[in-house]
Design a protein that fits this description.
alpha/beta; Rossmann fold; 10 strands; 42% helix
Amino acid sequence: MSTTLEAVRPIELSEIREARKRIEKTIVRTPLVCLELGAGFPDIRLKLENLQPINAYKLRGAANAVAMLPESERRRGVWTISAGNAGQGVAYAAKQAGVPCTVVVIETAPASKIGRMRTLGAKLIPVRYDVAWKALEDRSFAGAEGTFVHPFDDHNFIAGHGTLGLEILEDAPDTAAIIASIGGGGLITGVASTIKALKPEIKVWGVEPETAAPAALSFKMGSPQVFKDWKASFVDGAGGQSMFPRMWERMKSLVDNYIVVSLDETKDAMRLMAEKVRIISEGAGALPVAAALTGKAGKGPIVAIVSGGNIDMQKFCELIASARN
């Protein structure tokens, strides 16, 4: 396949508004609720993307990206690479379009994500994490057929995620900061593109787990970095092995700063949301709450994007039972 890629360019506000119209019948406008913690804690609001039809924000980008493919490319079918949420999003959009979908899926993905992709009719090709990450860099994989939809380094995918920013500003115009988890960087790039176009004074923070924090390292070093001490964890939807140079180019002027949290802090945040607002969040979805609780993003109002809730129930119960609070 051709390796010629479109040059990285800013996501225009007009493209995000057009994406909103394009995907409005596919996605849910998710609620934004307060996390009531009492005096002494930051004012935290939760943007509940775990309530999307696939229980994750990725549906926004996938629906927009698949809808914008030329008919000739859609007819060939689509494929993507995923730990589960992007795979579900592309499979959902492909099913609506009536085209086949293949997902090169990380073999350690939760059973809940694998089961949902199969239910949506996707053909799955399980691979190790490092193989999947290499395929993301190469944008190719032997045995995957059809048109490739990159799960984060795709202009139209990112524009779809930008619709989140529009909803946040409408529902919480007093927002002082927004925190989003970073895996490949598509979510935070989309949201920040909206925010910086409309209310640039709002701070946009990225968050990663301590076991996989290439974006924070790249911010510190001033260039895209490989995270040499990468370790797999229950936070399977965020934290990559490296920062892709193209994504760093997109993010560096949009994201104000980065926070790294521990796995214990992430488990604490998962338990806190379950106890206070009865929210089931996967690890990546809890990272922004964990980051907000550090106080590094200020007193708020802070919008923490709960990016997904796709986690096996037994694993979820084990994690919150072992949380410190």
